[in-house]
């Protein structure tokens, strides 16, 4: 049974930062046709993370309501590099890099999207075909003053940092994508607002009904400060192992627990409200709710069995202080070695200074015994297990 337009709008509005405009979107929905929902992607790396899953999950919601997802792959714009929200020029990607990344992207994207309701297209198909005259005509439809209103550009100019001509062209190219595919709606993060609105204006310029714009909140990464990004290394990849995914999620700041539930999971709203109230009233240890979050996300991208097993393993290691079942091994041709040398040679520590600091902090255990002596000699007549901090375990085997 088809969902009424008003009900569709109500569902679409959930966990959305801004819609431009709700009235226009409702009118499009009332036409009772399949809307073309655009999402532009410049595959900057081969791994999709939870931050990007936020917009993909909203796209899936549109698909479940009967609409079509149109994925515009930036094989052309990726070679420019999106300047949105950056303080310096982004490195450009080659077509070969983009194609290689896209092969891995597709498999990951379909963990979230419905392949039967998804179109993939490359913007090099139309942007690469534009003549110099066409580009000048496109540029004539927007002013430099408007482009330079962007916070990232104006900030760079204030700081004496260059803004290159190819970066100025990026919003126009992305906007022209909407013209080429006749988008009804475009999705993006709040940091993409300028580019998304350029698409609306260009569609008017080309006598097309302007797309509606839906902006999703930015999901902060593991540091709790900057947006989740491969560049910052603060991300959780959706193809990471259950163990790695679980461990990373257990490390997020407590204040982000509810936001992660809202934006990165399919948890029912009433359940999230229950968690929110428990945390607000301080009736539960935040760690317990975080544990539920980690299990929920591992279950989504792996399986219920993986979530249960990883949860049990986490409890075993970090609550009961036991040794994990699976530990990497490091072999060394010695029967005895100093603890500092062992920590560095095995790769557990990056330097002797770090190794000494960790020993002084009491962060190094061997077979359950804390090591405090910097000159401690480790006997390797039999395998030993070193624990460095809370997360690192390594079995040492002497030869």
Automatic annotation (TrEMBL):
Coiled-coil portions: none
Keyword terms of this UniProt record: Aminoacyl-tRNA synthetase, ATP-binding, Cytoplasm, Ligase, Nucleotide-binding, Protein biosynthesis, RNA-binding
Source species, domain of life: Bacteria
Keyword Cytoplasm: yes
Key word Zinc-finger present: no
Record-linked Gene3D superfamilies: HUPs, RNA-binding S4 domain, Tyrosyl-Transfer RNA Synthetase
Gene Ontology CC annotations of this record: cytosol
Main location: cytoplasm
Catalytic activity: tRNA(Tyr) + L-tyrosine + ATP = L-tyrosyl-tRNA(Tyr) + AMP + diphosphate + H(+)
SUPFAM superfamilies for the chain: Alpha-L RNA-binding motif (SSF55174), Nucleotidylyl transferase (SSF52374)
One GO biological process term: tyrosyl-tRNA aminoacylation
An example molecular function term from Gene Ontology annotations: ATP binding
InterPro entries: aa-tRNA-synth_Ic, Rossmann-like_a/b/a_fold, S4_RNA-bd_sf, SYY-like_C, Tyr-tRNA-ligase, Tyr-tRNA-ligase_bac-type, Tyr-tRNA-ligase_bac_2
Domain spans labelled Tyrosine--tRNA ligase SYY-like C-terminal: 325-394
Similarity comment text for this entry: Belongs to the class-I aminoacyl-tRNA synthetase family. TyrS type 2 subfamily.
This protein's name: Tyrosine--tRNA ligase
Designated gene of the protein: tyrS
């Amino acid at each position: 049974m088809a969902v009424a337009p008003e009900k569709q709008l109500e569902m679409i509005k959930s966990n959305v930062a801004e819609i431009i405009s709700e009235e226009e979107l409702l009118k499009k929905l009332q036409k009772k046709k399949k809307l073309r929902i655009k999402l532009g992607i410049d595959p900057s790396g081969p791994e999709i993370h939870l931050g990007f899953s936020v917009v993909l999950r909203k796209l899936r919601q549109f698909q479940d309501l009967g609409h079509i997802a149109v994925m515009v792959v930036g094989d052309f714009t990726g070679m420019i590099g999106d300047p949105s929200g950056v303080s310096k020029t982004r490195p450009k990607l080659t077509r070969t890099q983009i194609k290689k990344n896209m092969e891995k992207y597709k498999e990951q994207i379909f963990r979230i999207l419905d392949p039967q309701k998804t179109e993939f297209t490359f913007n090099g198909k139309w942007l690469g075909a534009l003549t110099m005259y066409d580009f000048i005509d496109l540029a004539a439809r927007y002013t430099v003053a408007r482009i330079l209103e962007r916070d990232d550009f104006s900030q760079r100019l204030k700081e004496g940092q260059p803004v290159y001509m190819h970066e100025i062209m990026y919003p126009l190219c992305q906007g022209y994508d909407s013209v080429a595919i006749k988008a009804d709606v475009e999705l993006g993060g709040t940091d993409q607002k300028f580019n998304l609105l350029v698409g609306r204006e260009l569609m008017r310029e080309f006598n097309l009904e302007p797309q509606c714009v839906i902006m999703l909140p930015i999901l902060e990464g593991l540091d709790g400060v900057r947006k989740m990004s491969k560049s910052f290394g603060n991300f959780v990849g959706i193809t990471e192992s259950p163990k790695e995914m679980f461990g990373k999620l257990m490390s997020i700041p407590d204040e982000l627990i509810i936001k992660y539930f809202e934006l990165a999971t399919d948890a029912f709203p009433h359940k999230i409200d229950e968690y929110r109230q428990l945390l607000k009233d301080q009736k539960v240890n935040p760690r317990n709710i975080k544990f539920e979050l980690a299990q929920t996300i591992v279950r989504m991208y792996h399986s219920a069995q993986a979530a249960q097993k990883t949860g049990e393993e986490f409890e075993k290691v970090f609550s009961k202080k036991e040794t994990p079942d699976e530990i990497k091994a490091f072999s060394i041709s010695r029967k005895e070695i100093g603890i500092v040398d062992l920590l560095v040679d095995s790769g557990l520590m990056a330097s002797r200074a770090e190794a000494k600091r960790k020993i002084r902090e009491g962060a190094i255990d061997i077979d359950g015994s804390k090591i405090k002596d910097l000159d401690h000699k480790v006997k390797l007549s039999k395998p030993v297990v070193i624990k460095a901090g809370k997360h690192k375990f390594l079995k040492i085997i002497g030869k």
